[in-house]
Design goal:
By secondary structure, the chain is of the alpha/beta class. It has two domains: 117 residues, Rossmann fold; 144 residues, Homeodomain-like (Arc Repressor Mutant, subunit A, Orthogonal Bundle). 59% of the residues lie in helices and 9% in strands. It has 15 helices and five strands. The protein has a five-stranded parallel beta sheet, sandwiched between helices. Helix 1 links the parallel strand 1 and strand 2. Helix 10 packs across helix 13.
Length: 266
């Protein structure tokens, strides 16, 4: 999982040292850099400092919240008299955690906060919703598949799944067949469509942003997958389905064992 650090350099280095190697940390020196990183890379948690531009301000953090409401935000800053009213005004932005530099930013606390926020990130919630449909798979394979879903776009073939599970391709395919599930290619593609649906609910993402972020070489491939797995274009699924409805549709059509063999054969 990728964490964005829109904070001064000292805080960035302290954060990176606390959460590596489990979490990768992308540094943003300016708010423009932060926006560009969020749109182009799979950021799910943003650690931000209201004083990043040199003056204590709430506007840029409020902007992030409006554009990307699914993004988890943590404030990491140095407390000053000028900052106090800014912190109070950020309450409506859904920020649940504030870390003060030099007061409570021990590496163990930083690591714990990131781990806690990760459990609420979009990719983790997606895995939770798909978990019952994948329960029939062997535990080791399920772990590999869940990790692949969390890093949407990084793993896309049965060969890659088999290699990570340390089995041959044939054994991997037989496990999916015994569970009555379609091939990993179908499952990962369907999961990417669900992840795209979640991102498209954020007004700050364009369809092009989402395609790039999820590793699609072309937007038309995302459009094709959206039609295949949800029966809608990317624009239509953005407007017409809730997260719960989209997940239920894919589980019913592709991950229910009674129907999955038909999907796998198509």
């Amino acid at each position: 999982m990728l964490v964005l650090a829109a904070v001064p350099d000292l805080q960035f280095r302290r954060l990176r040292g606390a959460v590596a190697p489990r979490f990768a940390v992308a540094y943003a020196a300016t708010w423009d850099d932060a926006l560009e990183t969020i749109r182009g890379r799979p950021v799910e948690i943003a650690v931000v400092d209201p004083t990043l531009s040199g003056l204590a301000s709430r506007e840029e953090i409020e902007r992030l919240h409006v554009l990307f409401p699914s993004l988890r935000l943590i404030l990491y800053t140095l407390m000053t008299p000028q900052l106090a009213p800014v912190l109070l005004s950020l309450g409506p932005c859904g920020i649940r955690q504030v870390v003060l530099r030099g007061v409570d930013d021990h590496p163990d606390r930083l690591r714990t906060l990131i781990e806690e926020e990760a459990m609420h990130a979009a990719s983790y919630r997606l895995v939770e919703q798909l978990a019952p449909a994948l329960a029939a798979l062997p535990r080791e394979l399920r772990w590999v598949l869940e990790d692949a879903i969390r890093s949407a776009g990084g793993v896309q073939t049965i060969q890659q799944i088999a290699a990570r599970a340390r089995v041959d391709r044939g054994t991997c395919a037989r496990w999916f067949a015994r569970a009555g599930l379609p091939s990993p290619r179908h499952i990962l593609a369907a999961a990417r469509v669900l992840y795209a649906h979640r991102l498209l609910k954020d007004p700050g993402f364009t369809i092009e942003d989402v395609a790039k972020r999820l590793g699609y070489a072309q937007v038309k491939t995302l459009q094709q997958h959206a039609r295949t797995y949800l029966g809608l274009t990317a624009g239509e699924m953005r407007l017409s389905l809730s997260t719960e409805q989209a997940t239920a549709r894919i589980i019913a059509r592709f991950l229910t064992p009674a129907l999955a063999l038909t999907a796998a054969a198509s």
